[in-house]
Amino acid sequence: MYQGDDGALQKAVALVLQNREDFVAILFYASWCPFSKIFWTDFQKLSSFFPTIAHFSFEESNIKPRVLSRYGVRAFPTIFLLNSTVRVRYHGSRAMNSLAVFYKDVTGLNPVSLDATSLERMEDTVTIIDHDKKTEKEDSLLSWARSPDRLLHQDTCLALASSFVLLRLLHFLLPKINACMKQAWRTRLYELNRLFPSLS
């Protein structure tokens, strides 16, 4: 398992893009968060259960806020499984068996220290009501390749900045449009008064 900063995150993404790794697991955590401390130890266990998956963990203070925003990290801990075509975020419980089932569902790999019988029992104990709602799949790892709807939904700062720019544009253009409308109305009234002088 690797820990690091923005450079290590770029290394993880490079592994995925170069297809050196089928899947990469990324954990964003905060040292001040008690749930993150528990989740971080479970993440270490997952790296031993799934040794073929490269595991990277990033502490919140070592990552720039814009990077966290790009990945849609709004709370800690947040875990992703990535490959060259998909990024899947985990939204289930923090139980180890639920995490192992999530890994198996996304990657198709079984944990090395569990046999098939115990894995089936583990799947029976974890009730996943709607798998599509709990995992958020993206079409591409690259932010510029995502659809605008998904980009605005996931990047709150971008959505707020875009709405601010549109409101400023409206604030700038509305008085000019109003002045043009008044001028057009005055011109029409002048022409009507000239054609029908008895109306005035």
Automatic annotation (TrEMBL):
Positions of the Thioredoxin domain: 1-108
Disulfide bond is among the record's keywords: no
Keywords, comma-separated and alphabetical: Glycoprotein, Membrane, Signal, Transmembrane, Transmembrane helix
Topology class, membrane: Single-pass membrane protein
GO cellular component: membrane
Key word Protein biosynthesis present: no
Pfam families: Thioredoxin
PANTHER family from the UniProt entry: 5'-ADENYLYLSULFATE REDUCTASE-LIKE 4, 5'-ADENYLYLSULFATE REDUCTASE-LIKE 4-RELATED
The protein, known as: Thioredoxin domain-containing protein
Main location: membrane
Biological source species: Sorghum bicolor
Subcellular location: Membrane
